[in-house]
Amino acid sequence: MQVAKHLGGHRGHHGEHPNVEVARRLGADVVDYRTQRYEDHVRDYDVVLDTLGGEETVRSMGVLRRGGGMVSVVGAPDADFARELGKPFLIPVMWALGAKVQREAKKRGISYRFLFMRTSGQQLADATPAIESGESSPLVGSVLPFTRLEEALEASAAGKGWPGKIVVTMDGAS
Questions:
Q1: Is 158 exposed, middle or buried (0-12, 13-18, 19+ CB in 10 A)?
Q2: Which region holds residue 97: left if phi is over 0, alpha if psi is between -120 and 50, else beta?
Q3: How far is CA 151 from the centre of its chain?
Q4: What's the pTM?
Q5: What is the DSSP string of 64-91?
Q6: 9 exposed, middle or buried (CB, 10 Å; 0-12, 13-18, 19+)?
Q7: What single string gives the DSSP state of each residue in 11-31?
């Protein structure tokens, strides 16, 4: 959400309390999915970042304007992903895996793209000015000393770091 804000985008988020307040602080318009259907409140977006996958991918397409785009980090891979991997023999497999989603996107007049997340020094360099100015900052949920590393790992595995990241400090560690 902070990146979208930095780039001048309008941000929407569907979440649950207490995450709703955190998302609002980060500049998003929020729909609480437990009490509202987001597609009844949000429409004509240019881009949707799909982080849920499954049927939610197709449902989320309904908030896009014609010509908009869906980027999924968890949905069906596409043929471009096989090309990026340098594995052209996987193109038919990726096409078959993503055929349903691609058909739905085409029917709605939108584009669909699978994004495989990987580290990028250039992306970090591009983000540096926003971070240094304080316009963008990490959302920290909890800070634990290294001596409580096991607790931090268990909390992370259970998804209990939200809202924010779990930070482990090395103070006093040898």
A1: exposed
A2: alpha
A3: 26
A4: 0.66
A5: EEEEEEEEESSS---HHHHHHHT-GGGH
A6: middle
A7: -EEEE-TTHHHHHHHTT-EEE
